[in-house]
Amino acid sequence: MSDQTPNNAPLTIQGVRDLIAKEHNLLLSEDDPILIAVTMHRAALDEYDRLLQLHKKQLSKDMEEHVSSFALEVRKSTNSLLSKAVKANIENCLSVINEHQVQMGSFLSSMRQLAILAGIMLGLSIAVSITVIVWGS
Known about the structure:
With 137 residues, this protein is mostly helical. It has helices at residues 13-24, 35-135.
């Protein structure tokens, strides 16, 4: 029958009478009992359509709840991973800073030793210079 009626056209009694007249060459009166089936069928289709709309609304609501819940869990997981990554990065930076601190301590210790050595050398150089000046060569 869908080939005989426009797309998405509602099933009407007159539409059925016209279709039967065309396809079966049979004229039905407006009060023909077979047309009760058209009314019953239309009522069933309307009820089915109403139920489909209710299911569609419920599915949309359920899907929205599930998506919101899923998005929340993803955010929690992402924040947790980000927190762990930041923590690991901070620990790595602190480790590098500690290594540099140890190396800097060693460097400063070497610089102090060299400064003391340079001071001793300066003292010896002054002492030798004074000795040479006072005692001669």
